Amino acid sequence: MLAALYRAEQLPYHLGKALENGLSVEELSEAITHLAFYAGRPNAMTAIQQLKQVTDRQPSA
């Protein structure tokens, strides 16, 4: 929803919390891919970039 509303600056916080709450990177990627059909590919690509930045900052398990 944030990506669709051009609120990409808020995505890292929410993506990080989603990961902390048990969602997998794959699940988040699938949700963002689904978003592309409704909010447009540019918004989805921004969200994917934000997800990559969040996962790059996460410590390895």
TrEMBL record:
InterPro entries: 4CMD/NDH-1_regulator, AhpD-like, CMD-like. SUPFAM superfamilies: AhpD-like (SSF69118). Signal peptide: none annotated. Residues 2-52 form the Carboxymuconolactone decarboxylase-like domain. GO terms for molecular function: peroxiredoxin activity. Pfam families: CMD. It comes from the Bacteria. This is Carboxymuconolactone decarboxylase.
